[in-house]
Amino acid sequence: MNRRDLEFGCAVLAIGLLAGLAGAATTLVLHAVEHLTYHYSFGTLLDGVTGSSPVRRAVGPMIGGTLAGLGWWLLRRRTRVPSLTDAIDAPGPMQRLTLTIDAGLQVLLVGAGASLGREGAPRQFAAALGDLGTSRWTLTPQDRRILLGCAAGAGLAAVYSVPMGGALFAIQIVLRSWSLRIVGTALITSSIAVAVAAPVTHLEVPLHWPNPELSYLLTGFAVLLAPVALAVGRGFNRLMDSARARRVGDSWLLIPAVAGAGLLIGVLSHWWPELPGNGKSVLTVSVADGLTLASAAVILLLKPMLTALFLRAGAVGGMLTPALATGAAMGSVVAVAVNTWTPLTVSVPAVSLACAAGVLAITQGAPTWAALFVWELARPPLWLLIVFAVAATAAHLLDRRLTRRADHAALH
Q1: Helix (H) or strand (E) holding 133
Q2: Per-residue b/e over 162-193, b at no fewer than 16 CB within 10 Å?
Q3: What is the overall mean pLDDT for the chain?
Q4: Looking at the chain, which terminus has fewer C-beta neighbours within 10 angstroms, N or C?
Q5: Its pTM surpasses 0.85
Q6: What residues pair up with 117 in beta bridges, in sequence order?
Q7: Contact in structure between 74 and 252 (CB atoms under 8 Å)
Q8: pLDDT digits (tens, 9 = 90+) for 330-383
């Protein structure tokens, strides 16, 4: 074994360890902010929002938005915050401090109730720590890119306890390569990161599967969900792209803009306590079959609109769980409508997660990863992975077919 391979092997272990520490740290800070905002000691964010006073529900997210907006204004006055993809692909060391501060502000805002994903922060922090930990080693630019891309996936794996999902995220979405070196690095780093973060996450499955009666006919029903998932996924992407394109600049106006978005979601949470946070609350009640047709329809509209509002205000955060929550709400609408208005009976949890997988396949362009990630979040019976894969693949193929048809029409 030559020196390069030895250093790369040591770097793989270091990246897994540092990503696990990043996932554990962001999880601890997020929970601390949630408990402080809604003044609760035990239970989930949904429990905290439901049990808090109306004033705290409204004021807490507004204060969090004000502090996060102030932080971003001060940060962006001094430097440009690169995207994680640009930071990984750029030669030379990362802007570690900038990315770390930006990640901390994301955790602050999401913990205070913003409708943004929490997975962006641990990915950034893990990559920054990984770059710091391996900066003095004689790594080639390609090896450095592999390690930092896998660090981002491992950070995601650590916070949700999804080792396969984190590895596949790095392979399919960040690095977009199935080379043996990348696959091996991704699997090892994600597995180590999940183990390191275990004392904080306790390896708990984010969603609790209710063990409902299931039918293998769900696989066929998943195909029928493809047009619905396609419409929701494309609509979600267009709404987010439009919000980013028209976002408040880096002037002081982003402070009241983010604070106002926080106040709005706080007020709306008085009627729909599932809205605050990254979307886990929506997923939880969808899997528990806790939504009526009306409430699922309202959440289907409000969740993406609030997420776009925070982006329009100048905030930054992940899009995975807001997209998942939107898809799950759509799945609940479909399942409850079928159970109410037809003689058929379908599993609301299974249809909700199948639709969520289909939407995530559209928003991320990675159906295999979407199906596996959704399955790992709930750990239902293994054969449901086929249902989720069918929903995700059917939506993805339909999306590609329509895209090719539109490109062909544009050329002629």
Answers
A1: helix 120-134
A2: bbbbbbbbbbbbbbeeeeeebbebbbbbbbbb
A3: 91
A4: C
A5: yes
A6: 318
A7: no
A8: 999 999 999 999 888 888 999 999 999 999 999 999 999 999 999 999 999 888
> Side-chain half-sphere of 361: how many Cα atoms within 13 Å?
32
Query: What does the pLDDT average to over 301-307?
Result: 96
Helix (H, G, I), strand (E, B) or coil at 140: coil
245-275 burial string, b = 16+ CB within 10 Å, else e? eebbeeeeebbbbbbbbbbbbbebbeebbbb
Asked if residues 304 and 330 have their Cβ atoms less than 8 Å apart, the reply is no
Amino acid found at 372 = L
Other beta carbons within 10 angstroms of residue 305's beta carbon come to 14
To which residue do tokens 């106002």 refer?
260
- Residue 258 has what DSSP assignment? H
Amino acid 35: pLDDT: 94
Helix, strand counts (H, E) of the chain? 18, 0
Per DSSP, what are the bridge partners of residue 318?
Answer: 117
- Average pLDDT of span 38-56: 90
Whether residue 243 is predicted with pLDDT greater than 70 in this model: the reply is yes
The yes-or-no verdict on residue 222 having pLDDT over 60 is yes
Cβ neighbors of 229 (< 8 A, separation 6 or more) are 327, 330, 355, 357, 358, 359, 361, 362, 391, 392, 395
In contact, 286 and 321? CB cutoff 8 Å:
no
Greatest CA span in the chain, whole angstroms?
67
| C-alpha–C-alpha distance, residues 3 and 47, integer Å | 53
Query: Which secondary structure element, helix H or strand E, spans residue 73, and what is its range?
Result: helix 54-78
Q: How far apart are CA 148 and CA 22, in angstroms?
A: 13
